[in-house]
Batch of 2 targets.
Target 1
Amino acid sequence: MNIESAKLVYFSPTGTTQSVVRAIARGVNPGTTEEIDITQPAARVQPLRTSETELLIIGVPVYMGRVPAIVRDWLNAIVARNTPAVCVVLYGNRTYEDALLELKTIVTKSGCRAIAGCAFIGEHSFSDPAVPTAQGRPDQNDLQLAETFGRKIREKLQAVSAVAEIPEAKIPGEFPYRGDSRLWTVDFIEVSDACTQCGTCAERCPAGAIDPADAKKIDTKLCITCCSCIRQCPSHARSMRPGLVKDAQLRLHTLYNERKEPEYFL
Ligand SMILES: Cc1cc2nc3c(=O)[nH]c(=O)nc-3n(C[C@H](O)[C@H](O)[C@H](O)COP(=O)(O)O)c2cc1C
């Protein structure tokens, strides 16, 4: 079967998931693509509906070994009918535990057929140039591999005449899921005098945790510690203050400095 269109769906506060999903789509090379970026709260209001005639490439980062809780309700609300789906997780060189299996299970319950899955490595959200973890990932090699994976998906689709004939991908993982998806409630962002109150951080925060009227005010109950505001501040006014997250940054840098390689399952 020929797939004429693909929907690229991703939650990607620091951009690594987005770039791998796009690279896979380049390899698949469908006629048309539509991007559905669910990083912002406003994009998670409408549920997604898909059909058998389009390919879904759906990506999330791994948070505590799991699919981020912030997008789980939206993912569970997807309405699909036999839609072939590619499940993508990005993790920060520690481990993806059961996140890929969890994503596959969610999309399957929504009516998709999970025909492929992969786990790629992205620079850890807590990484910075002084204390890096998986810095610069995904790199050129990763993105080339993502394109190759995309081409293999295309071949898998072309070898059959209907979605029901495509074997489901065997995804590693355990149930009950091992990771505890509860995130830390922590006041860890330092805002310096360089802040111009431009509002970029509040606009891009995936959790709506930053007050648009005062970038120094953060609702720690909503904050998901994704560090998008630190990365995207045009004045470099935001940083991590000492504490739980900063300690984790050093721990990750020390314990997970050996390069891991992407894996894919078809
Ligand atoms: C709250 C939180 C929890 C995370 N948990 C894990 C984890 O369990 N294992 C891991 O290897 N990386 C973990 N990471 C790192 C992200 O999975 C990784 O940096 C990913 O590439 C970020 O994707 P994005 O750039 O699309 O936002 C975590 C990041 C955050 C913010």
Target 2
Amino acid sequence: MVRLELALAEKRYANSQQTVLGTIRAQIPAGQFVALVGPSGTGKTTLLNMIAGLEASVAGSISVNDQPVIGRQPDCRLGYIFQQPRLLPWLTVFNNLQLTAPERSAGEIERMLERVGLHGKGEQYPRTLSGGMQKRVSIARAFLAQPELLLLDEPFVSLDLPTAEHLRGMLEALWLEHQPTVLFVTHDFDEAIRLADRVLFLSAAPGSLILDQPVELPRPRSDLDVAEWKTRLLGEYPGLLAGKVVASDSSLWE
Ligand SMILES: Nc1ncnc2c1ncn2[C@@H]1O[C@H](COP(=O)(O)OP(=O)(O)OP(=O)(O)O)[C@@H](O)[C@H]1O
């Protein structure tokens, strides 16, 4: 079970004067599914990289189960689905999966391939698969590791609609089964509402937290539930998806 605490003051890259992220404070309890939504370039990927321990310098802190993770990997089973699949080209699909989940049996790997719609593709090399298929291998790889902390960076973006919908259902089912703590970056607000317990909205660059919004809808959530909830929230905060929290009565929240 993994708790996450974000207490960021500022993030800049060493090779640049630009501030990428601003103030983000949030406590994420174990097992919560959190979506991170914000305009392009607001530092969402940077934030995931920091949580994964891939960034060394930052003002403020990030901790996983009270252990700081800046510049060091969290001490838990971590799954990270990157924007790009990042498969090892010299290994077959099966061996790519086995490398990151050596404790899984061949049968478990085959069943996971089947669940992501890649039955019989285990002996192929990544270059012989389409971009969407490679993405599905990277999703299978993350799920096979049975992560306690799962970071997803726009995982369904390049997939056709039925595949994306199937994989969203699978993600939700796996999350309900294993209850990892999830941080899910998406530009698709409907997807965020459909899946998340809570949505963190970031401002335009540099990304600061402008709204921390619980999604109190029972599961499974229908398209109608999602549409109604979205309309209500955007009615309240019309500039939200552009990274502005100005309430509809024009009183400034931040
Ligand atoms: N290694 C790096 N060195 C310097 N600047 C970087 C580096 N990586 C990202 N940036 C800059 O940090 C800013 C935020 O990038 P990031 O990819 O984190 O944003 P994002 O919100 O995930 O964007 P998108 O939604 O378009 O994927 C951008 O201006 C980007 O150019």
